[in-house]
Write a structure and sequence with these properties.
The protein is an alpha/beta fold and 333 residues long. Helices cover 36% and strands 13% of the residues. It has 2 domains: 180 residues, no CATH class; 130 residues, no CATH class. The strands form 4 sheets. A 3-stranded mixed beta sheet has the order 1-3-2. It has a two-stranded parallel ribbon with strand order 4-5. It has a two-stranded antiparallel sheet with strand order 6-7. α2 runs antiparallel to α5 and α2 crosses α7. Keywords: Disulfide bond, Hydrolase, Serine esterase, Signal. InterPro entries: Tannase/feruloyl_esterase.
């Protein structure tokens, strides 16, 4: 009890609600007069990231599976900058458009009365051209008021923070101008306590899964939570009772270019009922008729699926048997 209390007092919260502050930052950057980010710009960004990172997992298949190697040093977004930062068409990004990407990928921290609320940025996935991913959530495919971020941060400003239904959320900055309101919102909504020791002691098993191209929730925030959790309960207990998977190329909860279907319920059931702890699982993608069209091993984080099949063989690169789960190298390659 005392240990848990001390832990809570000293940690910076990885706050679910402060994700909305990150939404606000990106929405403000993409607002009219700023860096409206339409499909052509998203296509440019995605192609640039894929050129830098897609092949790092052994196959250029539109899926950046080796996310750890896809660093800012590799992607060098500054090379996309238009001359003098002024928009010059679909082959470059203006300074205002680069500011949208920077707001999206940056970590954010907001100060409450007695806690700091943080949220990790989003990693570039090379799938920013998916209108149901980055476009749907972050940019509204060129009209930020159509984006998930805008809608969610808008009502948050109006009803939680400013407490004014007419408040202009795109003009609401800084996000932590009302620290007491942030505290109240976190107290009501956050479910971010990493100490799941009581759950584990009760015999609970936990499988955490997330799409690697999730544009709604930051994968790096989930990674951060899982690391906090392992520290809180101890690495041995975490290894014995929890599993964490990131599905490359998969959007929020499903969809995207990557294989998005894994039967996690069966894996959990076998773990609980037969004591068969899950290791590498199978991720599949199905067409509209329900026929399997692609598969990948679903590797335990931080492992990723690296292609080990015949080169230049499109059919082989869609079969899980031709991939192995490997750890990213410490040098990021
Ligand atoms: Ca790839």
């Amino acid at each position: 009890m005392a240990r848990g209390t001390a832990f809570r007092q000293h940690r910076a919260y990885q706050s679910a609600d402060q994700r909305l502050g990150a939404f606000n930052a990106t929405a403000r950057a993409a607002a009219p007069g700023g860096g409206a980010f339409g499909p052509a710009k998203a296509a440019l960004l995605a192609r640039h990231v894929r050129d830098a990172c897609d092949g790092l997992d052994g196959v250029a298949d539109g899926i950046v599976a080796n996310r750890a190697a896809c660093t800012a040093e590799r992607t060098r977004l500054e090379s996309l900058r238009c001359v003098d930062g002024v928009d010059a068409g679909d082959t470059c990004l203006s300074d205002a458009q680069l500011a949208v990407v920077n707001a999206w990928t940056a970590d954010h921290a907001f100060q409450g009365s007695n806690a700091t609320y943080s949220s990790k940025g989003y990693a570039l996935s090379g799938n920013e051209d998916d209108p149901s991913g980055f476009g749907l959530w972050a940019t509204g495919n060129g009209d930020v008021r159509q984006s998930g971020y805008f809608v969610m941060q808008d009502s948050t400003v109006q009803y939680y923070l400013a407490k004014d239904p007419k408040a202009d959320s795109l003009g609401y900055t800084p996000w932590d101008r009302n620290p007491q309101a942030l505290d109240a919102m976190a107290a009501l909504n956050d479910a971010t306590d990493p100490d799941i020791g009581a759950f584990i002691a009760h015999g609970g098993k936990l499988i955490v899964w997330q799409g690697g191209s999730d544009a709604a929730l930051s994968v790096d925030s989930t990674i951060d939570y899982m690391m906090q959790m392992a520290r809180a309960v101890g690495p041995e207990r975490a290894a014995a009772a929890t599993r964490f998977y990131v599905a490359p190329g998969v959007n929020h909860c499903g969809g995207g270019v990557g294989p998005d279907q894994t039967d996690l319920l069966v894996a959990l059931d076998r773990w609980v009922m037969e004591n068969a702890a899950p290791a590498t699982l199978l991720a599949e993608k199905f067409d509209a008729e329900g026929a399997p069209v692609q598969s990948l091993p679903l590797c335990q984080y931080p492992l990723y699926p690296q292609y080990a099949g015949p080169p230049n063989d499109a059919a082989a690169s869609k079969k899980a048997a031709n991939f192995i789960c490997v750890a990213p190298q410490s040098d990021g390659s």
